[in-house]
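ESCALATION

Customer reports they have been waiting on this structure for their group meeting. Please prioritize. Original submission:
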Amino acid sequence: MRIQFKQLLDNYFSLVKRFVPEQILRPSVGIDIGHHSIKLVALKPKGGSYELVHYAVEPTGNNPNEVVRSLLKNFPESPSTLTTSVSGKGTLVRYIDMPKMNAEDLRKSFALEADKYFPFPKDQIYHDCFILDKAERDSKMPVMVAAAKKELIDECLALFKEMECQPDYIILDSIAIANAFHILAAEDEPGAAPSSQQAVAILDIGERVSNLTILAARLPRFCRDIFIGGHELTLSISNGFGIGQAEAERLKMQPKGKQAEIMKFTDSVIMNLVSELRLSFDYFITEKNIPISRLLLTGGGSLMGGLPEAFARALEVDVQPWNILESLNLPEDIPPDEKVKISGTLGVAIGMALYH
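Update from on-call: job pushed to the front of the queue and completed.
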């Protein structure tokens, strides 16, 4: 069977090292199955970058199987690879230091010690590890280790088996985001401090869970799940205005002159997020001695107006929406407002579609 959790990291940066000729490559597809919506993205190499061949976003509803089946059915061609993910409780990413060794020896060594790093019995998880910096001068090297409960992977496989197809890779949302930034982020601007001397944080605000990833030298060095998301923002708006959640969700995206009231009603949720971010930033800066230069926001929850300004004031750091589309070749018929919307929601799916 091709699908093994070890492929989570085996090909983590493979596109940087091995660029398949675009004329012979079919599009690769990523499917992000979220609580609020399901996103499909198809990418194809083009001119040293990537072309957004196809995308679709549909509400998850009560039957995600039918939504995924419909999205795949409407995709016009057979993908070269199909990647999906698992996230939230039952998944973990850790960053540890290990004695210097090659990747094969690392896997053997880590397999014996996995239960030291994860709060799950070893026989109940799939796990893998990836060397982040082989050139580290120390006697130790930084390693990223990841795990997912087998039941999560099995459920994901069962969903696709019903549709008589099989994903080539099952990864984690946080690794998809890090992969997208590593491959697509612009190089350092002239005169800027080298990326190894500063870090970039990415907050992916999902419906139920927000994921924070901090990268230095465009490699992930810290990540954690924060169990606060867009749903809590919607509930605060719903309670504040005394309206239903569906109307509150629409108002969150289109404030209709009520931005000040929305920010007032959601202030406690935003400050809870800020508190979690500040704790994580302080830990990272103390542990790694690397300052965080900016915070990039992505995910459906990040589309609420006023969030970048609120985070910037509270954290005293440069905060921007992550325009992940700026590094892709896009179809000319996408309206500007649609670009803003999908740029905030397609990050995880794009990170998946960068797998080959």
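Sent to customer with the following note: Residues 187-322 form a domain with the Nucleotidyltransferase; domain 5 fold (CATH 3.30.420.40).
Escalation resolved.
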